[in-house]
Design brief:
rod-shaped, mainly alpha, about 280 residues
Length: about 280
């Protein structure tokens, strides 16, 4: 036998005994018995231990309720609390928001507003005096800058000022289209909390109706249904509104910055035609 293990064995017994006594004292102190009660318990004759009675079977209603509560998932609870009406409304708003977000993300790309290839190609053709090729390049480009430049070149025969006015009109029209598509995201962001607030009022009215119509103490489960509807509609409404408003403001700032860049780039490219005067027709 290892002498080290035989020497430490009594020490381990003492430690275990100390821990056991400490736990016993702690458990005994937490029972809350006073010294008088302990003396009475010591003086009283030991009573015969009663035979263990078989546990009473719970009623079938309680068993069914327990099984239903344990089998119900969190998703089922949320769906049941919202109801099909609110659920369909929030699902429609969510899918619409995702669709609008994808559309606006694609529309607010730099390639769709201010493509660098168009700027370089258009400027190169103007330097080489290939005005018709520059017009064809801008007209075939589907970006906002391409439409603005093609509108300016188309009206250049009427003078530089008329070309600038045409460019501004096209730029404002494209800006209105982008803002119009973005505004639907803001609409969803403002509408979702209102629907959540409507569900909150609806759920609280349902809970108060249970209290008012119950003859005795109302059942907690009936009260919980209305309160769950009130809270979940508010939660889902805010969960849709917060990302909708955040995405709207971020994309609006991005679109505004790129549209400003469209205006600056188009004016810089067309600045070489400042001396062009409107052509007069001979009679």
């Amino acid at each position: 036998m290892n002498p080290l293990s035989s020497a430490t064995f009594p020490v381990r017994i003492q430690l275990f005994a100390l821990v056991f006594v400490s736990l016993s004292v702690l458990a005994f102190s937490m029972t809350g018995f006073s010294q008088d009660e302990l003396d009475e318990l010591d003086a009283a004759p030991p009573a015969a231990a009663p035979a263990e009675a078989p546990a009473a079977a719970p009623p079938p209603e309680a068993v069914g309720a327990a099984d239903t509560g344990s089998d119900q998932s969190v998703l089922g609870w949320v769906v049941g609390s919202l109801g099909w009406g609110y659920l369909l409304i929030f699902l429609a708003l969510s899918f619409t928001l995702v669709s609008l977000l994808v559309m606006n993300l694609l529309a607010s790309r730099r390639e769709n507003l201010v493509p660098q290839e168009l700027v370089e190609g258009f400027e190169g053709m103007l330097n080489e005096k290939e005005f018709q090729a520059a017009y064809d390049l801008a007209r075939t480009d589907e970006s906002v800058l391409g439409q603005v430049l093609s509108a300016g070149l188309a009206k250049l025969s009427r003078g530089y000022n008329r070309a600038l006015e045409s460019m501004q009109e096209v730029g404002e029209e494209e800006s209105m289209k982008l803002e119009h598509r973005l505004s639907y995201m803001a609409l969803i962001g403002n509408l979702s909390p209102m629907i959540g607030l409507f569900g909150t009022v609806h759920g609280m009215i349902s809970s108060f109706r249970v209290i008012a119509t119950s003859g005795s103490t109302p059942e907690p489960s009936k009260l919980a249904e209305g309160i769950s509807t009130a809270l979940f509609t508010t939660l889902v409404g805010l969960a849709i509104a917060i990302p909708a408003l955040a995405a709207y403001n971020i994309l609006r700032n991005r679109v505004s910055r790129l549209l400003l860049e469209v205006g600056v780039s188009s004016e810089n490219l067309m600045s070489r035609f400042e001396d062009v005067q409107p052509q007069t027709t001979k009679k």
